[in-house]
């Protein structure tokens, strides 16, 4: 615009709403004001229709069909030209929804839950949903979230027994990696953690290990009860000896390292260890190195989760892959179905798999270890 052009002169009348030409240059050392977003009124003026017609076109309701095809296209063309986007809040108000879902996980710092969140975000975008993540929640927090209008539905992942309370019957909820008996009126999507544990024990037995160490989670959660039951059943069937200790997963690698030291200090120490997650396995690596033991020559190690750190350890960790991304996607797909008022079909337990890397090896000593 020419320097002497005044507001309202011919040099400024042609600027479209939100056009850079319609903004004054900000003073030095200041942040420029945000560009004004085009409104429904701007679209109506450009399309030559009323503002009510613009609202009908973008309402997404049956009423929008009263507008002729030619007028609808003219309005949409004007909106595209201006870069107009209908306000989501207005649509959500009409539908009685917030457009947000809550993903509740026990520990947001747990790497496995990062995998779950990746799948949740990916699937939520396909259904026009936004995701909020909550960690360290309890039954009261969940009940409060379920009874407000902030969230359209809840995804509750790997809950501890103490974290589950009474949830309103009219709140859409999907449980992930949880006991299918928690609430039989709501969908539960499980992982085949029992199959993964059996594969881990059988792998070590196939390598000649007869005494298996185990660092198991102390958390009172269904997923850990299932894997422990599968461990006990498999070692009993194979006639293996067991040395095990409990460890708190929320305390991370330091707690795992301390527990591993106690395990490895035993006179009957095992020469193979199965851990309830990959972070615990990394603690075993550290304790073994501090005791002058080599993985896998002196100690075979198996983790569970297959989080990114597993492949970065030296040597890379053999682990049970729990498909967190698939779990998250399946959970959102089920929740989106509930939000649409659809009946959700049961989902078979998601398959797990043993990922064989370099942290396990065949026994070359007495078969007692």
TrEMBL record:
Residue ranges annotated for the HTH lacI-type domain, each copy included: 38-95
CDD domains for the chain: HTH_LacI, PBP1_LacI_sugar_binding-like
InterPro entries per UniProt: HTH_LacI, LacI/GalR-like_sensor, Lambda_DNA-bd_dom_sf, Peripla_BP_I
Name recorded for this polypeptide: LacI family DNA-binding transcriptional regulator
Keywords: DNA-binding, Transcription, Transcription regulation
Region (Disordered): 1-38
Coiled-coil blocks: none
Gene Ontology MF annotations: DNA binding
Oxidoreductase is among the record's keywords: no
The species this protein was found in: Kitasatospora putterlickiae
PANTHER family xrefs: LACI-RELATED TRANSCRIPTIONAL REPRESSOR, TRANSCRIPTIONAL REGULATORY PROTEIN
Organismal lineage: Bacteria, Bacillati, Actinomycetota, Actinomycetes, Kitasatosporales
Any Pfam family: Peripla_BP_3
Domain of life where this protein originates: Bacteria
UniProt biased composition (Low complexity): 1-20
